[in-house]
Amino acid sequence: MITLHPNILEREGKKAFVILSYEEFEKIREALDDYEDLKDLRTAKAEEDSVPVLSLGCVREELKI
User: I want to staple 17 with a disulfide (CB 3.0 to 4.6 A). Which of 9, 12, 21, 43 is the partner?
Assistant: First the structure.
């Protein structure tokens, strides 16, 4: 869990900007990168479900090794 300490800036009485420490920004960026990697992994695994699979024994038999 990431703990944030944002500073919120307002413009005309409405929240407009958030300022974070660089360390907190980096933690968020790393978490987003990890999330994107996880999404890519899940997509790749889902695509592999339709790919035919051969056991090691079948491959050895086919290659005669």
Answer: 9
